[in-house]
Amino acid sequence: MPAQQPHVAPPPSTSATTDNATRLESQPTTPAASASELASTKISLRAALRQFPDFPIPGIDFVDILPLFASHSLHTSLIRALELQVLLFNNGVKPDVVVGLDARGFLFGPSLALRLGASFAPVRKRGKLPGPTQEAAFEKEYGQDFFQIQSDAVTKGQKVLVVDDIIATGKQECCHARLVKECWLTSTNRGFS
Prior knowledge:
This protein is an alpha/beta fold.
């Protein structure tokens, strides 16, 4: 009787081998591992940004984020970094709803919501959303503006993460927080990429 050969598992295929950044669902990690992964990911993301001095007017140094979306691997790393930042900031507690602010919050919000297992709710300028809405006003340098969220986008007791790209004066962000509160939330965290 011939000797049995030991079972050897086939090598993993490239399509089956993925890191945490390429998975749609959130991956459990320790806080130390998450912080380390976040730090190294931030370095590669910052290196991909483009700088345009004096754009759109003299004195403004514009940082172009679009290269992060032009590369699949950078885009994936960006969403993973945002996920890690949210989890580290909030002691591992995930939001129930990610609210994305018009319009750049739409670039980050839906993908981040998928990673966190949350729903996504857009906040838009007045008149852009169908159905019943909640509205809040805010003052800009050149007048008043209005934002709306659908009335049923956030329900009482849900944990909400508000996502935008920058903080300028903070007036828009305060307006969005008021909108979400009007939809019955219990806690709001704000994320800026």
